[in-house]
Amino acid sequence: MIPDHRKDWDTYFMDIAYMVSTRSQCSRRHVGAVLVQGKKLLGTAYNGAPSGVPDCSEAGCMIAEEYELTMVDGKESMIKKQRCVRTIHAEQNLLLFTDRIDREGSSVYVTDEPCWTCANMLANSGITEVVFHRPYPKDSGKVTAMMGQKGITFRRLETYEPPRETAAQIEN
C-alpha cells in the first residue's frame, strides 16, 4: 500500500481560504472564507469594497471608532475598537454569494476568527461549523460563547501554517 502524503482536509481548505484572501485590496487585513459541505467546495469570498466601488487602496479607509463596555478580571473596562466600514467582510460576502440550501449543514473555513457581526450572521446562516486560523481577541469571548449556544462547532487551527505566497502585512 502506498502511504498517503496528501494534506489533511482542514489544511487543504484553510490553504484555499488563504489563497482566496490574496484577492483582497484591504490595507489592514486580508481575509478569505470558504464554504464546504462534506469534502465539496461550494463557494469562496474575500473582504473588500462592494463591486464597482473604489476600495481602500483607491479611496482610503473609512475608519469608525466605537467603544464597548466589557468585564476584565471582574472589573468593567471600556475597549476601543476601530473598524473599516468601507469593507464588506469575507464571511458577509460568502453569505451574500452562496445559497441557503448549500449552507445547511456546511462548514466555513475562514483565515481569521469572525468578528461579532459576522458571527451573528454565520449563526443564522445554516452552517454547523466555523474553522479559523488567526484569532480576533476583541470579540473572541462573546463569539465563542454564542457559537456554543447555537451548537455550532467553533475551532481554531492553532498549529496551521499558511502558504508562504499568501503572507500579507496585517494591521490589528
UniProtKB/TrEMBL annotation:
InterPro entries: APOBEC/CMP_deaminase_Zn-bd (IPR016192), CMP_dCMP_dom (IPR002125), Cytidine_deaminase-like (IPR016193), dCMP_deaminase (IPR016473), dCMP_deaminase-rel (IPR015517), Deoxycytidylate_deaminase_dom (IPR035105). Belongs to the cytidine and deoxycytidylate deaminase family. One of its GO terms (cellular component) is cytoplasm. Keywords: Hydrolase, Metal-binding, Zinc. Pfam families: dCMP_cyt_deam_1. The active site is at E91 (proton donor). The lineage of its organism: Bacteria, Bacillati, Bacillota, Bacilli, Bacillales. PANTHER family: DEOXYCYTIDYLATE DEAMINASE, DEOXYCYTIDYLATE DEAMINASE-RELATED. It comes from Paenibacillus faecis. GO terms for biological process: pyrimidine nucleotide metabolic process. Gene3D superfamilies: Cytidine Deaminase, domain 2. GO terms for molecular function: dCMP deaminase activity; zinc ion binding. Residues 8-144 form the CMP/dCMP-type deaminase domain. This is dCMP deaminase family protein. Signal peptide: none annotated. Zn(2+) binds at H89, C115, C118. Its cofactor is Zn(2+).
